[in-house]
Specification:
The chain is α+β, with helices and mostly antiparallel strands. It has one domain: GIY-YIG endonuclease (3-Layer(aba) Sandwich), CATH 3.40.1440.10. It has helices at 24-33, 57-68, 72-79, 90-100, 111-119, and strands at residues 3-9, 16-21, 47-54. The protein has a 3-stranded antiparallel sheet, sandwiched between helices. The relative contact order is 0.17.
Length: 120
């Protein structure tokens, strides 16, 4: 099962929090539902700025332990090459996960019904 090592921050980039999980979107939703879990409400962790996908649990745990010991400049050095503007990567993840799921065809107008309406 794949694991993710991630770094999230608040809107002012004051705090950097390193974590590890199996479902990144579910974890980010949890952070949104529990805004004062780690810090007060002014320092809400809500911006995913970095993540790595790792194949095995052992490798993920080793990477998590290593990144957790990094100083702030080391974490910033890791983030800046892949996300120089520190944009929230959550929107891209939600889009990507939506692309993989085939939308239901129920409720859509059929093409034949549209053709019949045009032909009449």
């Amino acid at each position: 099962m794949k694991r993710f090592v991630y770094i999230i921050t608040d809107r002012n980039r004051k705090n950097l929090h390193v974590g590890m999980c199996t479902d990144l979107l579910k974890t980010l939703k949890f952070y949104g539902e529990m805004p004062t879990l780690f810090f007060d409400s002014a320092q809400q962790l809500n911006r995913l700025v970095y993540f790595e996908e790792i194949n095995t649990e052992e490798q993920a745990m080793e990477r998590f332990k290593m990144v957790s010991t990094f100083t702030r400049p080391q974490k910033e050095k890791m983030i800046r090459p892949v996300n120089p503007d520190w944009v929230d990567l959550t929107a891209g993840l939600k889009y990507e996960s939506g692309v993989r799921v085939r939308p239901a065809i129920y409720g859509r107008p059929s093409i034949q019904a549209v053709r019949r309406a045009v032909a009449v």
